[in-house]
Amino acid sequence: MTDDTRLRATVPTVAELSDKGAIVLVLAHFGRPKGVPSPEFSLAQVVKPYEAVLGRPVRYVDWEGDAAAVATLRPGDIAVLENTRFFGGEEKNDAAVVDRFAALGDLYVNDAFSAAHRAHASTEGLAHRLPAFAGRAMEAELDALEKALGRPEHPVAAVVGGAKVSTKLAVLKHLVGRVDHLIIGGGMANTFLAARGVDVGKSLCEHDLTGTAEEILDAADAAGCTVHLPYDVVVAREFRANPPVRTVNVHEVAADEMILDVGPAAVEALGDVLKNCRTLVWNGPLGAFETAPFDTATVALAKTAAALTKDGSLVSVAGGGDTVAALNHAGVADDFTFVSTAGGAFLEWMEGRELPGVAALTQ
Ligand code: ADP
Ligand code: MG
């Protein structure tokens, strides 16, 4: 096991249910065993670490003799069941697998927002078979997302960065109709700059998507959403740590240079935009933040957002694998209102899609 974040996230729900006298059976998946049981993917190995984060004893229940083992549990007991993906039907939301899980319990509590974009037996099917509830972590996540994009206080700003436009087209299209300020950074900003006629040199740029970028800019215009593209940028000839760099206006990028970060003047202006906003939703770094000094813009804007959140003037919600890493790198993840570790589910939510695991709970 590399990280116990996901284990710790379940503690409030599991401890509360146990304290209230429930027998708590924890259903979880691990890895991609594709229906084939193997020791490598067995949840037996999480029992000890789970006991450590819970501070309580945890039983392990295998899929052989599970009903008999569960029958010996007493109110307040906590048991981890074996990997749900040891059943091939789990990911197919197979009715027989749903029945198998449902037979073990009386109530279903879903605390895994990060798996809610999948309609699997343990994430969706069960909600139709047993009385279903959101766990505390799921509840907190849905609350935060509702505050950020469902019913946010305006003005709302979105930061969308990262490498490519192509992975975030649906996000951009959804956001232009919802937010007042769309801040585009990262590699994807280059495609938008190219669409506006800027020569981006050797920068990462999806030239085949400049037409799509123009459509998004037009849609933003029509919706009254202000799009913020960088007007100064940090460029280098080589992509490595601490190469010679130049800070230039976007119109001054040389043919052999790459844009690797948003420039300081643009970052300062973006900070002023955030000062006038009440809500911020952030996915994607502004630059190639893993490599110094191209973390500068991301760190600076993250610190501004964190300070505004601390002052109480901004609700800030962020998510995405690299975004979480970038906010941790900036040392401000704890100062944001909410940081989602949900990856795929967070992005689908930013696309405005209904997540099957959440929809099944609210029906
Ligand atoms: P997330 O995981 O938060 O959704 P993405 O995966 O979309 O974020 O994007 C993160 C990646 O984008 C990082 O690896 C970062 O280095 C890269 N990136 C950001 N800006 C640039 C840039 N100007 N040129 C190349 N890569 C960039
Ligand atoms: Mg990523």
Describe the structure in your own words.
It is a single chain. By secondary structure, the protein is α/β, with parallel strands linked by helices. The chain has two domains: 5-134, Phosphoglycerate kinase, N-terminal domain (Rossmann fold, 3-Layer(aba) Sandwich), CATH 3.40.50.1260; 142-350, Rossmann fold (3-Layer(aba) Sandwich). Helix content is 40%, strand content 15%. It has helices at 5-9, 11-19, 47-54, 66-71, 95-102, 121-129, 136-150, 169-176, 186-195, 210-223, 264-275, 296-311, 321-330, 344-350, 356-362, and strands at 24-26, 59-61, 78-81, 108-110, 132-134, 156-160, 181-184, 226-228, 232-236, 245-249, 258-262, 279-283, 315-319, 338-340. Helix 5 packs across helix 6 (121-129). Magnesium ion (MG) binds at residues 321-322.
Topology record:
Layout: H1 5-9, H2 11-19, E1 24-26, H3 47-54, E2 59-61, H4 66-71, E3 78-81, H5 95-102, E4 108-110, H6 121-129, E5 132-134, H7 136-150, E6 156-160, H8 169-176, E7 181-184, H9 186-195, H10 210-223, E8 226-228, E9 232-236, E10 245-249, E11 258-262, H11 264-275, E12 279-283, H12 296-311, E13 315-319, H13 321-330, E14 338-340, H14 344-350, H15 356-362
Parallel strand pairs: 1-3, 2-3, 4-5, 6-7, 6-12, 7-8, 12-13, 13-14
Antiparallel strand pairs: 9-10, 9-11
Residues 321-322 line the site of magnesium ion.
